[in-house]
Structures are given as structure tokens and as C-alpha cells.
Amino acid sequence: MSPQTATPAAGARTAEADGIIQDARQRIDDLDGHIIGLVQERMAVSAVIQSERLSSGGRRVNLSREMEILAHYRDQLGKPGTALAMTLLELCRGQI
């Protein structure tokens, strides 16, 4: 590849930039794998909590706790954090 030739995969215009982009994309793929694993772990822990809450006569969902989670994500990540938290809550407890 010549120094000024664009690469289709990365959209880079140099071999150096292409290498950096490819390495960074691999890191993102690795991070996504960790994030997915953590979400699956969170779902399993949430299932234990819901099961215990229901078996003790409680409700499946604790709305005040969910509000705490939404606020925490919003405080840490801004408005998009709220959407992320809502997605996590839906994955962990289903739609209410």
C-alpha cells in the first residue's frame, strides 16, 4: 500500500494509520467481549435477586432501586447513560 492509498477496511489513508486503527478496533472488540460477559453476569445476579424477592413475597421489580441505577448511570455518563441503564434494566428484569 502506498503512503497515500486509502484502505477500504479502516478508511485510513496511510499504512501507519491503518495499523493503528486495526489495533484499536481489535481492542474495542476485546472490550465488547468483556462488556457482554459482564452484562450476562449482571443478568444472572439480577435473576437471583428477583427469585429471592418473589419467594419471600415481594415484587419482582424494586422501582426505587431502579431509579438509583438510572441516576448513577446518568451522573456518570450523561443523558445517554440513562438510555444505557434502561437497556441494562430491561435485559436484567424484562419489560415492565
Task: Give an overview of the whole structure.
This protein is an all-alpha fold and 96 residues long. The protein has three helices and no strands. Helix 1 packs across helix 3 (79-93) and helix 2 runs antiparallel to helix 3 (79-93). The model has no long low-confidence stretch (mean pLDDT 91).
- Our Rg estimate from Cα atoms comes to 20 Å
Give the assembly state of these chains: single chain
Helix count from the secondary structure assignment: 3
Give the end-to-end Cα distance, rounded to a whole number of Å: 54 Å
Instruction: Indicate the proportion of strand residues.
Output: under 5%
Main sheet specs: none
Itemize the secondary structure elements and their pairings.
Elements: H1 15-55, H2 63-77, H3 79-93
Helix pairs in contact: 1-3, 2-3
How would you sum up this structure in a few lines?
The protein contains three helices and no strands. With 96 residues, the protein is mainly alpha-helical.
